[in-house]
Design a protein that fits this description.
Number of strands: 14
Distance between the termini: 24 Å
Number of helices: 13
Strand content: 25-35%
Helix content: 25-40%
Oligomer: single chain
Strand order of the largest sheet: 6-7-8-3-9-10
């Protein structure tokens, strides 16, 4: 569906996207992760034809985004991080549909469909400027859906929303994934894990991981830990653990209620065995285990492990930011001239 080949974007001496290659298959929800400044938004802007590339190619269903932009862009709906909303209009933005080539009954039918799909019925006669941020995001998504594109690309669609609005947008993304290929970026890892079938992680402009969330977690499950909370004092817990003669490191910490929290570092394959040993060892001493569980890696652990050290500082440096902004302006002017 989407093929990105050796994509590179440079701003002077700063490389925002570095030889990025991946393929997006039709009919999945993809999460796009990376620290601030990792190149997520730059990549999305290039994929949608809003920004030129220094090198490489992007094809949408076989159409090159720069050589055949009209055909490629008809297949995509895009919601940037800052939604391009017309604040003095209502959510029924006919001219957005007209700009996508829709006319007459088809236009009216699609507007009604996307208003219903994004649950904007109660707001369709209000000015967009009077809507909450959550509803403005919905308007942006509705605009992206006009034309019934195969691919929906959403850049940080839940940023700045309250918890209820986030849940609503998540549900909407799940629904979109049933009929469209969806790519969205987010800093909320639990959100990505709950919604996405596949995850791309980039750091410093490079692809560092691309797989299903469960498979990514397995990257770090070669080692793990067993955590427990015991209703005993630290001396008693220490004696029990020393009696088990564990071939692993362990740590203890006394809690305010007098119980002891412990963690035993071990190999992933040994976690069940260690849990069983702990259970019977504490039972023999008639000491209660209030909590006992293997501690496995999650998507957050994978993200930190793969992107550690990529703080995004280069993109925050004043000189490079000014240089990037100047080139982006030039890109925009060139794209306007070509269109």
């Amino acid at each position: 569906m989407i093929t990105v080949e050796h994509l590179t974007k440079r701003y002077g001496n700063f490389t925002a996207v570095d030889d990025l290659s991946f393929e997006i298959e039709e009919g999945h929800v993809y999460g796009f992760l990376g620290p601030n400044g990792a190149g997520k938004s730059t990549t999305m802007n290039i994929m949608t034809g809003c920004l030129s590339a220094t090198a490489g190619h992007v094809t949408i269903d076989g159409y090159d985004i720069f050589e055949e932009p009209d055909r490629a862009k008809r297949l995509m709906g895009y919601l940037p991080e800052q939604p391009p909303l017309y604040l003095n209009e209502t959510p029924v933005v006919k001219f957005v549909g007209e700009a996508k080539g829709l006319r007459g009954r088809e236009l009216a039918a699609q507007i009604e469909a996307v208003i219903s799909q994004t649950k904007l019925e109660a707001m369709k006669n209000r000015l967009i400027s009077k809507l909450s941020k959550g509803y403005k995001q919905r308007v942006g998504i509705a605009q992206a859906l006009l034309g019934n594109p195969k691919v929906i690309i959403l850049d940080e669609p839940t940023v700045g929303l309250d918890p209820i609005q986030i849940i609503e947008i998540r549900d909407l993304i799940r629904q979109l994934g049933q009929e469209h290929t969806v790519i969205f970026s987010s800093h909320i890892l639990s959100e990505v894990q709950a919604i996405c079938e596949k995850v791309l992680i980039i750091a410093k402009g490079k692809l560092v991981a691309f797989d299903e969330p469960d498979n990514l977690e397995k990257l770090l499950t070669a080692s793990g830990a067993v955590s427990f909370i015991a209703e005993a004092d630290e001396k008693e817990v220490r004696e029990i653990l020393e009696g088990m003669e564990l071939a692993a490191d362990w740590q203890l910490r006394e809690q305010e209620d007098g119980s002891v929290q412990g963690e035993i570092q071990t190999e992933a394959g040994e976690m069940s065995h260690i849990c069983r040993q702990l259970f019977f060892a504490f039972a023999r001493r008639e000491k209660a285990l209030l909590q006992l569980a293997p501690k496995k890696a999650n998507l957050e652990d994978v993200f930190i492990e793969l992107t550690e050290g990529d703080s995004g500082k280069p993109e925050a440096e004043e000189g490079k930011t000014a240089e990037r902004d100047k080139e982006e302006k030039n890109d925009e002017e060139r794209l306007v001239e070509e269109s």
